[in-house]
Amino acid sequence: MNIEAVFEQFPILNSDDFVLKKIEDHHLNEVFEIYNNDKVFEYCGIIPKHNKDTVKNMIGHFERDYKKRSRVKWGIFANPKPDQLLGIIEAVDFNQKVHVVTIGYYLSESHWGKGTATEAVKILLDFLFMDVNVNRIQAEVMPLNETSKKVLLKNGFIKEGTLRQATLWAGKGIVDLEIYSILKEDYVK
Q1: 141-161: per-residue pLDDT in tens?
Q2: What angle do CA 185, 187, 189 make, to 5 degrees?
Q3: Of 16, 29, 162, 169, which is the most exposed, with the fewest CB atoms less than 10 Å away?
């Protein structure tokens, strides 16, 4: 795994329609719009944040986690308007021994149902498989999160099974999670 492709310099990823890039302090209002909406995190292990100062501190935590090489959070931006934040996509748990990474994503509610998450995942897959040389990308999804499952399936992921009462998610308690994955050999076919 070429971990330096991720952490040497913050990677900016592009498609014709979207740019995945670093979230900066001046994006506070858009980040707050996402984190302040209970619906966005209905199926996530993230507790919504209803205080703008808390969200401002979180943007600093995004940078801290990146410098610690533990997590990368990209802002999803529309390419024609590269400063309009539509959502957030992340890569976490870089397991260099087996070349595995976990991804997650969430969008501002006003951008649901427009293919944004599907395209952002596609951009991230290409980067992780082709530039970082990851072998396996996985995502954990709550069983009721049908929309997220569709995003993964459209991108070639397969459902491997359900992890019953497998983890403690903030605000949700102990939850079942469905595990989805895609291997590099599946991706390059």
Answers
A1: 999 999 999 999 999 999 999
A2: 75
A3: 16
